[in-house]
Amino acid sequence: MTESRLMATADSALANQNAAGAGMLAGIGAPLVMMLLLVMIVLPLPPLMLDVLFTFNIALAIIVLLAAVYAARPLDFAVFPTVLLVATLLRLGLNVASTRVVLLEGHTGTGAAGNVIEAFGDFVVGGSYAVGLVLFTILVVINFVVVTKGAGRISEVTARFTLDAMPGKQMAIDADLNAGLINQEAALRRRDEVGREADFYGAMDGASKFVRGDAVAGILILFINILGGFAIGTLQHDLTAGQAAENYVLLTIGDGLVAQIPSMLLSTAAAIVVTRMSGTADMGAEVASQLTDNPRVLYVTSAVIGSIGLVPGMPNLVFLGIAGLLGVVGYLRSQPDAEPVLEAVPEEEIKPAESRDLSWDDVSQVDEIGLEVGYRLISLVDRNQGGDLLSRIKGVRKKLSQELGFLINSVHIRDNLDLQPNSYRITLHDVIAGESEVFPGRELAINPGQVFGNLDGVATKDPTFGLDAVWIDASQRDEAQTMGYTVVDSSTVIATHLSQILKNQAHELIGQDGVQQLLDKLARTAPKLVENLIPDVMSLAEVTRVMHNLLEEGIPVRDMKTITETLADQSSKGLDADALTARVRVALGPSIFQTVNGTAREMPVMVLDPKLEQLLMQAVSGSPGGIEPNLMDSVIQQVMQASSKLETEGHNPVLLVATNIRLFLSRLLRGRMANFYILAYEEIPPNKSIRVVSTIGGGPGGDQQNEGGAAQAA
Questions:
Q1: Domain end among 541, 562, 587
Q2: Residue 608: in which H helix or E strand, if any?
Q3: What's the per-residue H, E or C state across 327-351?
Q4: Element (H, E) at 471
Q5: Pair (248, 147) in one structural domain
């Protein structure tokens, strides 16, 4: 046993040593390349070393091109801009090194700069410098005018559109996170991907300039080598004009071709990368699939090629052969896939349902949470048809359960033929809580408030928040995000709508059984606290009523220990459920402040004019006189105006009032405004401060702005 452990330890140490060695070798690769570049520029290289480096340069260009072809999406080859820069500098360094050798040793013959340059100058162009010049010119035109210029333009446009679309993509991620469709880790991963995508296309925009400059440098190096070599050969080495042209021009052409071919391969790779869209397959698979998916295209092409082949004087055999091949491929693509054979069920196994008497099982129960869908939306629910609505609803339940502090029960989903085909309906206890219409296969582009253009589609309203929106084709998604729209699919629309309804109606989703489960969970860590509260001090029904009050005003019940301790301390004073709720809110003040204001220490608030506040206190306490309806309408209008101003400034609207009128105003204003908070002075933690931005007066025009007035909470 000891020997085996020693051997295992030795093997592990050896593996770690090998891994460390491999890491060191991988880490010094890039510095070695840069040092090699410096050596090529400064020191003269022998012909053998030039052959090795030129061969390596061609191999590197082929590797980069194939990596770009087989990448499923651009970010899979995120290091491409850096590789492109290094490869370009390496090739330019080789040009400098080869130029030195050509000019110094070109008078000795065409083999002075190595076998690779000689082969390209002699074999490829047939030993004719005229043919070499023409061929080099054609390669330069293709590389510089066509590939490089087009790739550079695409890089510029893609980089700009990607940066413009970033806010919309970030908002879509936040929307999915808030709806519970993704968790925090997935959101971070998607945000990182969006940032990496913007960085990649920005780097590609810059890298394309290197490719363009490399093409220009190749042209200049060619003319410099020809003119310089001819002058050196005739003036220094006493060669005839013909001998100088034969030696130096052929060497220069060979050198230029050896450099231009890898340059064109890298330019092509850059064009492929910036024109690729994210997918699940490499370029070859996608091209083959999309070109041949429609057999009609192949049939029409086959007919056209066959018609040309029937023209006298044409190479009939070639045209008709290709036409026949296209027709065969079209026929094969048009054949449906084989369907699975279903086994026949013996007739004796098919038995009619036996008649039975009615039972309590035939009495349908009321669904706590229900979702009814039209028949065209069944595909969103069916996993076999690629529907993901079930998983998204599960994510919504999980997120709301974590936020609110209690378990959200399952959602009962069923089809309803009485609904319109594209309609859905959300019910709570069989009462309709919301309904709308979605279109599977299309996406909803929501206007968050500021967009840069209009979209073609069906105008509508976002069912969750009532924002202006447009139903668009899936192909318009990138365009819409670039304009600033938040784009979501049909499943996300339904899930977000459901999430908002459940959040707003959370108090209807918890009963005495749910409260008892929360207390049982608390009893595992604080048994005496729960034992002393129920049933001796308070009944389960009274505790449930307090929980309803908290959830009705958007206060989570995660902190059951604080809630229970407060109830146990205050219940002996004979307070009703509303008064107990107010005491619990004070105890939960720090949590409420953080929910409303985040991590900021100062909270901008609205307050009531002292005279108005005194009048409301008298009315709530039952003093004669009451409140005039016109006065309350004026107060409501002023609160709504001040709230709009706070929302415009990026703050949640908060109205700070006295404790004894907080509940009255909350019930009066809560249904009129969304995301509106009414807090009592006692609910502000002592270590936090407030800043009064508006004072609500007692009549029309009584709103008084009080900018910059700060008050430390008592």
A1: 587
A2: strand 602-608
A3: HHHHHHHHCCCCCCCCCCCCHHHCC
A4: strand 468-473
A5: yes
Question: What's residue 2's pLDDT?
Answer: 41
Tokens describing residue 309: 């082949």
Whether residue 145 sits in one domain with residue 244: yes
41 DSSP 8-state letter: H
Structure tokens at 691: 């800043």
Q: What is the pLDDT of residue 278?
A: 52
Q: For position 15, what pLDDT does the model report?
A: 44
Which long-range CB contacts under 8 A does 574-578 form with residues at least 24 apart?
577/542, 577/545, 577/546, 577/549, 578/549, 578/663
Taking alpha carbons only, the member of 510, 513, 512, 540 closest to residue 429 is: 510
Whole-number Å distance between alpha carbons of 652 and 644: 10
Q: What is the model's pLDDT at position 198? A: 75
The fraction of the chain above a pLDDT of 90, given in percent, is 16
Same domain, residue pair 533 and 598: no
- At a CB cut-off of 8 Å and minimum separation 6, what does 303 contact? 323
Two tokens at 697? Answer: 């007066």
Question: Which residue type is seen at 167?
Answer: P
Cα 454 from Cα 27, distance rounded (Å): 50
Check pLDDT > 90 for residue 493: yes
Instruction: Give dist(CA 172, CA 21) in Å, integer.
Output: 44
CB 628 within 8 A of CB 649: no
CB neighbourhood size of 74 (10 A)? 22
Q: What is the Cα–Cα distance from 408 to 172, expressed in whole angstroms?
A: 25
* Domain count of the fold of the chain: 5
Beta strands in 142-190 (DSSP E): none
DSSP 456: S
Q: At what angle do helices 250-275 and 47-70 cross, to 10 degrees?
A: 20
pLDDT score recorded for residue 100 = 76
Amino acid at site 145: V
How much is the pLDDT for 7? 44
pLDDT at 114: 61
Residue 513, Cβ neighbours under 10 Å: how many? 9
As given in the structure block, the two tokens for residue 438 are 């979605």
Residues 34 and 123 in one domain: yes
The two structure tokens encoding residue 250: 């052929």
Mean pLDDT over the full length of the chain: 78
Average pLDDT, integer, range 524-539: 86
What distance in Å separates the CA atoms of residue 472 and residue 621, rounded to the nearest whole number?
55
Angle made by CA atoms 573, 576, 579, in degrees to the nearest 5: 85
Summarize pLDDT for 261-283 with one digit per residue, the tens: 787 788 788 777 777 655 545 55
The residue segments making up the domain with residue 613 are 590-714
Q: In this structure, how many other beta carbons lie within 10 angstroms of the beta carbon of residue 137?
A: 13
* Over residues 466-472, mean pLDDT: 91
Task: Supply the pTM of this predicted model.
Answer: 0.56
- Single residue among 228, 259, 287 that ends a domain in this structure: 287
Longest Cα–Cα distance of the chain, Å, equals 123
State whether 277 and 310 are in the same domain: no
What does the chain come to in residues? 714
Q: How many CB atoms lie within 10 A of CB 627?
A: 15
Ramachandran category for residue 141: left, alpha or beta (phi over 0 → left; psi -120 to 50 → alpha): alpha
Sheet containing 677-680: which strands, arranged edge to edge? Answer: 677-680, 654-657, 602-608, 689-696, 704-712
d(CA 642, CA 657): 15
537 and 675, same domain (yes or no): no
Q: What is the pLDDT of residues 18-37, one digit of tens each?
A: 444 444 444 565 677 667 66
Is 75 exposed, middle or buried, given 0-12, 13-18 or 19+ CB atoms closer than 10 A?
Answer: middle
pLDDT of amino acid 128: 65
Q: Are residues 636 and 689 in the same domain?
A: yes
